[in-house]
């Protein structure tokens, strides 16, 4: 894989389809509902910030955020292709979210699958969530 810094970062829905999102969610694995393609895509349309990382035409990472831009940002989803996990793709997405949501508290819910990842990035556990100031 190319260095994560060399991947194409997009902050639009360009190239994203319900099928691509659902496939990445299942492969990551991200425990989200993928059985209603239109609802899945609509959740992205309604989000404050959508970031995706591409290696040529291949979607390798995806993040979705809801924010008021002042106090709180909520990282709804972070998914990375399994074959590039550990290569810095997720960190690059988190770093970009922190830059764009600066001054807000970044909150996320997590399963036990990726606890160590968020700890390494400076997130602190709170009951039922992880929090880090951007």
Protein described:
With 134 residues, the chain is α+β, with helices and mostly antiparallel strands. The protein has helices spanning 18-27, 37-45, 89-100, 115-120, and strands spanning 8-10, 49-55, 58-67, 72-80, 105-108, 124-126, 129-133. It has a 7-stranded mixed β-sheet. α1 (18-27) packs across α2. The termini are far apart.
Helix content: 25-40%
Q: What is the approximate shape?
A: globular
Biggest sheet features:
7 strands, mixed
Instruction: Note the run of SSEs as H and E.
Output: EHHEEEHEHEE
Q: What is this structure's SSE topology?
A:
Layout: E1 8-10, H1 18-27, H2 37-45, E2 49-55, E3 58-67, E4 72-80, H3 89-100, E5 105-108, H4 115-120, E6 124-126, E7 129-133
Parallel strand pairs: 4-5
Antiparallel strand pairs: 1-2, 2-3, 3-4, 5-7, 6-7
Structure characteristics:
31% strand, globular, alpha+beta, 7 strands, 134 residues
Short description:
The protein is α+β, with helices and mostly antiparallel strands and 134 residues long. The protein has helices at 18-27, 37-45, 89-100, 115-120; strands at residues 8-10, 49-55, 58-67, 72-80, 105-108, 124-126, 129-133.
């Amino acid at each position: 894989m190319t260095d994560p810094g060399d991947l194409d970062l997009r902050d639009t829905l360009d190239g994203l389809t319900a099928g691509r999102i659902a496939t990445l969610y299942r492969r990551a694995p991200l425990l989200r509902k993928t059985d209603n393609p239109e609802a899945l895509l609509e959740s992205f349309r309604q989000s404050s910030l959508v970031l995706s990382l591409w290696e040529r035409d291949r979607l390798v990472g995806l993040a979705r955020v809801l924010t008021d831009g002042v106090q709180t940002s909520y990282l709804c989803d972070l998914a990375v292709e399994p074959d590039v996990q550990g290569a810095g793709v997720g960190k690059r997405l988190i770093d970009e979210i922190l830059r764009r949501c600066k001054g807000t508290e970044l909150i996320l819910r997590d399963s036990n699958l990726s606890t160590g990842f968020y700890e390494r990035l400076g997130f602190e556990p709170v009951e039922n969530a992880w929090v880090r100031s951007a």
